[in-house]
Amino acid sequence: MRKVIQGTCLAIIVSLAWILCARGQVITVTSPAYRADVHGTTVIRVNAPGFKGPLEAKSWMPGGEFGADSLIASVNLNTEGQGSFSFPADRYPHGPITVRIHGTRSGDGS
Known about the structure:
Layout: E1 2-6, E2 11-15, E3 21-22, E4 25-26, E5 28-31, E6 41-47, E7 51-61, E8 68-75, E9 82-88, E10 96-98, E11 100-105
Parallel strand pairs: 2-10
Antiparallel strand pairs: 1-2, 3-4, 5-6, 6-9, 7-8, 7-11
């Protein structure tokens, strides 16, 4: 399952396949809406009940010989498991971008 966020110059694919999902505990992106335009700095809101913070949001950044993984944000969660982070869309290449969000489950530390 994928969430597609599109912009005039940028399309971001938040791949839910890479998001930790076990025993009904999942990290979901609650905004922006599916197929929303994304440019400049965009606030991405997540819901991750059953996880302890902070979550990490990462993406590949071009540069050097092969590029490198970049940490977009460390996402603190409130007591309901909700959090948000700013995504600097214009710093990433035009076209599909995968943003990976991962964290540690509260119940078993996985």
